[in-house]
Amino acid sequence: MTHPEVLTTHLTTNKVVVVTNDVVEPLYFPIVSQALAGYDVSKIVVPDGEQHKNLQSFEMVISKLVGNVCRA
Question: Within the chain, what is the greatest distance between any pair of CA atoms?
Fold first, then answer.
C-alpha cells in the first residue's frame, strides 16, 4: 500500500480490527497490516460467500469485537 495515510488519518485509537473473508484475507491482510504498522491490528475472518452474510455471521463478528474490547 503506497498511501497508508488513507487508512491512518481516520483512526482515533491504536486498536484496529479488520473484518474480512477467507478468500480476501490471504491476498490483502498482509498489505493492510503492514500499512498499519505501529497499530495493534487484529482480524476477524468470516467464510466467503453470500450464504454467510447473515445474522449468525454478524453475531459472531459482534461477539468477537465485544470480547476484544473487554480484554483491553
Answer: 36
Q: Distance of alpha carbon 45 from its chain centroid, rounded?
A: 8
For Cα atoms 5, 7, 66, give the angle at the middle one, nearest 5 degrees.
145
pTM of the entire structure?
Answer: 0.83
Nearest to 47 by CA among 70, 22, 29: 22
H/E/C letters for each residue in 20-60? EECCCHHHHHHHHHHHCCCCEEEEEEECCCHHHCCHHHHHH
pLDDT along the chain (72 residues), means of 10: 87 93 97 94 96 96 83 56
